[in-house]
Fold this protein.
Amino acid sequence: MTHSHLNMTKTTWNASDEVAEALRGGRAVVALESTILTHGLAREPRGMSAKFMAAFPGWDAHRPANLAAALGAEAAVRACGAVPATIAIIDGRVCVGLSATQLEQLCANSGASKVSLRDLGSVIANKRTGGTTVASTSCIAAKAGISLFATGGIGGVHRGWSKTLDFSADLMAIATHPVLVVSAGAKILLDLPATLEALETLGIPTMGLGSRLFPRFTVSPDQNLLLPDQVQDAAEAARVISAHWTLRPSCGALLMQACPEAFALPAEQTEQALAAAMIDAQALGIRGAATTPFLLARLAASTGGQEVVEANLALLFANASLAARVACAMPK
Ligand code: PSU
Ligand code: MN
């Protein structure tokens, strides 16, 4: 018996008709993660500023914010000519491409878990439901034959890592699955210089779009933290990743772009909120997988929380568009 996904029964693996057909036809497909839906955004509707609505007129203020975000990211992929494949585990089934009903139910499900690499087996076997992280989404996308994946910000080496040894499974997953992950860099709550070192150690190609500044998720880039490489456009990213895969066909890569300038936040304000949140996390004994959702939720609830949410959404939509453009530029 092999353990290939080809042998997984229909009950554990389900690609939507649209995604299955796109993959069969060699069309451009972009994977999207779902932890941001289950753990990153509100399950209540959320009104946005006039500035946000002018930039993203499709935002649906009447739907739950996480569902509106999911639909917005999918629409951004479609607008650039690719097919979106939102990935999640639903009742133990690995779903690649969710129906409207599945997406609605996932976004409404307050019991959905955060599913990282280590959790996949138990969530599937116990027929549970969860949002997949960058790590587990990379694994599932690779198995499905999808090579482009868009997210907000990746996980990385956490601040205080020398005591906690906490660094995200995202890093190992990207190093060991052939996907190009498009992000706005690593989450601001991390130790970013250490994250850059880890990416180098793992041999993960890391390119900035039109810049070598390391993007910091919702915060504007640090002028002193440089990526090893940059590309001018989607076509160049596609050429670089194709060349990379001729030699290292099982190692992923990163393409990063800064949060759209109109929505990026100043570092000082975020650092202040983060410092308070980290003290609370320690006092409450928040550890392990709970750390990232806790700190991000505290940032979004801090003074200026509305701007944090808008920046998070603006960068997510921008990354979905960029991933779709690269997917369309990949050689067939
Ligand atoms: N976006 C959010 N909240 C999250 C995440 C994204 O608003 O929790 C997830 C991402 O899916 C990322 C993961 O892969 O957090 C990293 O978590 P950790 O540091 O535990 O590996
Ligand atoms: Mn962790």
